[in-house]
């Protein structure tokens, strides 16, 4: 290739790349309204964005993978944690984690109830933005620094559900494990199966043994008579019996979503119960 050909090649390549870039940019702008649910930007969402910025949340947290990377990415946080949980958490994070033992450094911002409601509205709008799968996975707060939990256990607990394959196409336990990871929101987003690793919900390690002890203790307040019944009740009526601990419930109501009874089929509930019953 002589100098003239090289020059023409460079100019042509630059022009083609520029045309492609402009075309992709215009196409992106054409879709922004739909992808971001712009019609759902209410005054509460706008006020919540101001609360987010005024309190410098981005100095620790990230949205769409952008931010300080010091604390969890909150892009899909309302899909992983319900409004009741996030509202209580924003009121006083210290009720959820012992900062001395667990190294949780989330400060109490002294937000008003109105600011909390607006901030939740903003985060919920963010959660519904079609972010094309970015970031690739949410950064979840796990119990990685809980006493008695080593780093390998904590890493396993934080591994995204899709990373661990499940075998056994007809095995109820295997099918239940798949439900555990794929339900909406995924059970694995709030519950760990590693001992001592409490997340938004208590660890499910040893659930079978603990449940038998609970049912025989006289402190159980639900209607179940056996392990399977207790698990089904916990899935469909999470407030029937509350696990002690301020981080799991407030004012007699569990933070666990009440939608699983409708979003999951009876068969899926049974499969999930079979899997959880296997956690000896």
From TrEMBL:
Pfam families assigned to the protein according to its UniProt record, in alphabetical order: Cytochrom_C
Domain named Cytochrome c: residues: 43-127, 171-280
A GO MF label: heme binding
UniProt keyword annotations, A-Z: Electron transport, Heme, Iron, Metal-binding, Transport
Ranges for region Disordered: 144-169
InterPro entries xref list: Cyt_c-like_dom, Cyt_c-like_dom_sf, Cytochrome_c550/c551-like
Name of the protein in its database record: Nitric oxide reductase subunit C
Originating species: Pseudoduganella violacea
């Amino acid at each position: 290739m002589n100098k003239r050909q090289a020059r023409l090649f460079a100019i042509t390549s630059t022009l083609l790349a520029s045309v492609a870039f402009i075309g992709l940019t215009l196409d992106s702008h054409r879709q922004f309204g739909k992808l971001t649910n712009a019609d759902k930007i209410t005054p509460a969402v706008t006020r919540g964005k101001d609360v987010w910025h005024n309190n410098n949340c981005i100095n620790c947290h990230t949205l769409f993978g952008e931010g300080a990377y010091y604390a969890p990415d909150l892009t899909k946080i309302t899909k992983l944690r319900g409004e009741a949980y996030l509202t209580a958490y924003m009121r006083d994070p210290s009720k959820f984690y012992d900062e001395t033992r667990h190294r949780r450094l989330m400060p109490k911002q002294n937000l008003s109830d109105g600011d909390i409601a607006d901030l939740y509205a903003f985060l919920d709008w963010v959660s519904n933005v079609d972010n094309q799968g970015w970031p690739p996975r949410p950064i979840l707060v796990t119990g990685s620094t809980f006493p008695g939990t080593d780093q390998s256990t904590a890493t396993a607990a934080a591994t995204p559900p899709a990373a661990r394959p499940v075998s056994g196409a007809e095995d109820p336990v295997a099918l239940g494990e798949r439900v555990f990871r794929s339900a909406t929101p995924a059970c694995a987003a709030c519950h760990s199966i590693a001992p001592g690793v409490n997340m938004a919900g208590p660890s499910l390690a040893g659930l079978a043994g603990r449940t038998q002890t609970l049912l025989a203790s006289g402190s159980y307040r639900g209607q179940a008579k056996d392990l399977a019944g207790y698990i089904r009740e916990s899935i469909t009526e999470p407030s029937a019996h509350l696990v002690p601990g301020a981080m799991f419930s407030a004012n007699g109501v569990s933070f666990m979503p009440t939608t699983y009874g409708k979003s999951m089929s009876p068969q899926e509930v049974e499969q999930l119960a079979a899997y959880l019953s296997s956690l000896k």
